[in-house]
Amino acid sequence: MTDHRMKPKAAGALSGRELLARWLVRGRLTQVEAADQIGVSRVQLNQYLQGARRPSLDVAIRIEDATGISIRTWLLDEAPHEEERSRAVDEA
């Protein structure tokens, strides 16, 4: 089996969702195949790819194990996400 995990990149170079999308392309994986490897549903994976949702710490660990994309990528991602934006609007 070929190892399609991502090589570490400079911090801040690409967002987690961009790295995740590249991992799918490099591995020639469908979202269903990638979701199976990570251990999430295809819907969840699509939400991460679209930036609509951030992975939980548990899922970020599984993403790192499957792809080599560091947990730090998700923790340090400063891009706003739809879920967080809508929560902020609801709290205002």
Notes on the protein architecture:
With 92 residues, the chain is an all-alpha fold. Helices cover 60% and strands 0% of the residues. Helix 2 (31-38) crosses helix 3 (42-50). The chain starts with 15 loop residues before the first helix and ends with a helix.
Draw up the topology in text.
Elements: H1 16-27, H2 31-38, H3 42-50, H4 57-67, H5 71-75, H6 82-91
Helix pairs in contact: 2-3
Question: Outline of this structure?
Answer:
The chain has helices at 16-27, 31-38, 42-50, 57-67, 71-75, 82-91. The chain is mainly alpha-helical and 92 residues long. Helix 2 packs across helix 3 (42-50).
CATH class: Mainly Alpha
The gross shape turns out to be globular
Please summarize the sheet with the most strands.
Answer: none
Proportion in helices? 55-70%
Task: Give the full name of the CATH homologous superfamily.
Answer: lambda repressor-like DNA-binding domains
As residue ranges, the low-confidence spans are: 82-90
Q: At CATH's second level, what is the architecture?
A: Orthogonal Bundle
In round numbers, the mean pLDDT is 80
Give the helices and strands as they follow along the chain.
HHHHHH
Q: How many domains make up the 3D coordinates?
A: 1
Distance between the termini: 50 Å
Structural descriptors:
434 Repressor (Amino-terminal Domain), mainly alpha, 6 helices, 92 residues
